[in-house]
Fold this protein.
Amino acid sequence: MRKFVVIGLGMFGFYVTKTLYEKGHEVIAVDKNKEIVQKIREFSTQAIVADATDKETLMAIGVQDADVAVIGLGTSLDASVLVTLYLKEMGIKDIVAKAITEDHGKILRNIGATEIIFPEKDIALKVATGISSTNLLDYLPLTEGYTIMEIAPSADFIGKSIRELQIRNRYTVQIIAIKELIPERINLIPSPDFIIKDSDSLILMGKNEDLEKIQKGEQ
């Protein structure tokens, strides 16, 4: 079990707190809005009404003992910058901060944030990517230019083995798993002799441009 502190309980911070708590972690939730703090109490280890821009208050709460800090103060640039700086000075190694612009994100990273989250941008990209393709089921960005993607197999894949399709050679894409519906199971690193069925979905990893080719059925 890890110890988290979530500062700023807007929609982003609220659901981060709730999810971490439901996964069994210790979570301290902090916001200066009493009503929001009251709502999060049952979904957190400790819910505290406090102004996180006061360093002494943060110290008194004990946030310096957290393994990870999550800053959900994206709508207040000054506050998020100040809190990030304080947490860095307190020695917290992992600081995840919400940002509203690229420049905001750069500032937060420069003063100590180890990960920057752009919730609106990330959701927009996922929605746009999903609705732009008829066979895309889900995707997970890895690092810049690379993605793990789940797709429904195209018609010319059905009834053929992975060996026959030569996906890795044709598209420079790796099949890391196949999700089977009948029977319902995940087949990790499937055998080259695995025959693809129309009820299966393929979980692929590779460069974005290569994954786009396989979605479009390009050679």
About this structure: The mean pLDDT is 86.
